[in-house]
Each structure stands twice: as C-alpha cells, then as structure tokens.
Write a sequence for this structure.
C-alpha cells in the first residue's frame, strides 16, 4: 500500500507532503487544485512498476502533455524548474523517486530510483476516470494499440481489466455480498459478446449504448469484482497490493445510487483494498461520512489555494474535522440563500 507522497514543482504543486491512509482516501477541493493529478501520479507509479515499464513512459501516457514533452508537467514557476517526487510504501519497500526539469522532452529524461524494488513487489492498481468508456469499447483497444488517438492510457488500462474473464468458482465472503448488492441495482448481470459489453436482465440482452450511463458505472464495479481485479483470488482479502483510484464517482450517477457505490467502496477498503477518490459532490461526501465506522482506516484530504497562491493540503480522520471544506461551504451558502428567499417571500 502507499503511505506517503512528496512532490516538488509538479503540475499544480509547488510543494506537497502528504500522508496516505491504508483504507479510504477522499480528496476534495476546487477545480485546479490538483486532485486528478495527484491520483494519476500515484496510479502511474503503481501501474508502471507492476507491468515492468518505465515510469517516465507511464507518466507521459497517463497525463498526455502536449507533444509528449514531460517537462510540461513541471510547475510553472520560472525558466529553470526542477521537479522531484517521492512515493513511499507501507511495506518496507524502498520509495520510488523521480526527477526531471521543465526542459525534459522524452520519458527517458526522467531520472528514477527505486523502480526495481517496486517491480519485484508490484502493486496492482485500477484507475476509473470520470468519462465512461465501456459503451465505446468495441475496437478501442486494437485502435489504441496501433494508432495515435488522444486518450489517456487509463482508458485502455481500464478496458484491459474489464475484459478479464470471471474467476472460477462461486464468489464468497465480502466479494459475494458486494456482487449481490450490485446485481440487485443492475437488475441483471454483465457479460461480453466479442468486444461488446451487454447487460443481461429482464429486458434481455442490452448493449451498453442502450444502458443508462450511471448504470454502466455500477456494471463496471460488478465486472471488476466478478473477475477478481479488485480483490484477491480468495474473494475476501487483498492478498497482495490492490489499489483503486476513482476520479469523480458521482459523474452521471443518480444520487439515489450513491449509497450503493459507497457501500462497495467501504467494503473494498475494509477487505484490504486501498481506495483513492476525488469528488465535488456533497451528497456523496456525506454518504461516505455516514457509512464510516470507528475502526475504518481512512483520511479526508482538502486541497486548497493559500493566500500566496500555492496549493496546500489539510487532512483529517473524519469529515467533520476537515478544514477548509469547499464542498460544505458551497452547500451551506446554497442553504442560506434558500432561507433568505423564503423569508423574502413571506
């Protein structure tokens, strides 16, 4: 599992020093405070070393800087900027360290230390981006592998995991409970025909183009649990490193489904999966808070812009202790304006 990250002059961050919880990590903050970038750099470190790939190459494919120039990921603070990063694990493996400058053009120009130790003890990770991809899956992977198309590699990575066949045997333990919950919401199960994803339910087989986008997100969770991507083969604990990164789970999802999604997220976290998510939604954030239990090993992180313009971070074990909280402040402002309008109409 990941335990700590330090960044210097990386994208939005002039300096970041952040401890990570082994369970659920929730990131909030206004647009432009670096939430997605933080999830992506952590994911890139895991996936690159798990697949015996250069971290610089994975960084380039995950962020897609213009013309592939790695130096464009440097913090815009002057003509000569040096970027450094260190990502630590909680299992005693040496940290992954990297550095480059704003003049670095190719992935080979990224200096990396610790990659071999990470590759010897890989962390398997899944990244779910805000945009849904399963409906557009037919032909995507073959096209992505042979042509340059401007899609971040996280989409191709996700399809690679979604296409995995299901595990043998009947699901047991936490995995069985979560699959049962998701199947009830879906009203059926998910399968593939060629490269097309289908929802099999009372209406027969529906290709994903005909399925509501919110339900496709539920279906994706079902797939990743059914094929064992998110949990270890035993179906009850993550036998080795499993991590889930989810950027804006609320995108195109009806708020009535938040409770189910959060049940799955907490179930994964309690089963040994380290979960990272970024959200802008008050209802989702509050659902996470309401389902939190005293024994849960979680952290809430607020990214915010300080008076000097730099991005800072504040962390708390509980939502009520998180400050500043841009989501709560906005919700409170809406409530106050509604009350003012009601009094004005009396």
């Amino acid at each position: 599992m990941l335990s700590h990250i330090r960044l210097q002059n990386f994208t939005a961050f002039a300096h970041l020093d952040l401890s990570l919880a082994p369970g659920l990590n929730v990131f909030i903050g206004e647009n432009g405070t670096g939430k997605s970038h933080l999830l992506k750099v952590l994911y890139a470190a895991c996936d690159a070393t798990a697949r015996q790939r250069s971290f610089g190459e994975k960084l380039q494919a995950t962020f897609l800087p213009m013309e592939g120039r790695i130096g464009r990921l440097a913090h815009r603070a002057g003509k000569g900027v040096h970027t450094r990063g260190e990502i630590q694990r909680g299992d005693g493996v040496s940290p992954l360290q990297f550095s480059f400058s704003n003049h670095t053009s190719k992935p080979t120009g990224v200096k990396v230390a610790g990659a071999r130790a990470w590759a010897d003890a890989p962390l398997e990770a899944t990244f779910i981006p805000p945009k849904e991809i399963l409906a557009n899956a037919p032909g995507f992977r073959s096209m992505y592998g042979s042509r340059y198309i401007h899609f971040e590699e996280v989409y191709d990575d996700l399809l690679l995991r979604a296409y995995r066949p299901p595990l043998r045997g009947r699901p047991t333990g936490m995995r069985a409970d979560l699959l049962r919950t998701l199947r009830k919401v879906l009203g059926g199960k998910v399968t593939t025909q060629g490269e097309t994803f289908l929802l099999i339910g009372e209406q027969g087989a529906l290709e994903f183009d005909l399925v509501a986008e919110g339900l496709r997100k539920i279906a994706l969770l079902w797939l990743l649990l059914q094929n064992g991507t998110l949990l270890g083969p035993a179906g009850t604990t993550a036998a080795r490193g499993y991590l889930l990164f989810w950027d804006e789970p609320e995108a195109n999802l009806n708020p009535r489904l938040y409770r189910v999604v959060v049940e799955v997220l907490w179930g994964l976290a309690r089963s040994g999966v380290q979960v990272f998510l970024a959200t802008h939604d008050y209802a989702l954030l509050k659902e996470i808070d309401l389902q939190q239990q005293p024994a849960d090993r979680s952290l809430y992180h607020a990214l915010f812009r300080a008076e000097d313009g730099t991005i800072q971070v504040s962390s708390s074990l509980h939502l009520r202790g998180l400050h500043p909280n841009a989501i709560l402040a906005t919700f409170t402002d809406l409530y106050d304006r509604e009350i003012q309008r009601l009094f004005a109409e009396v």
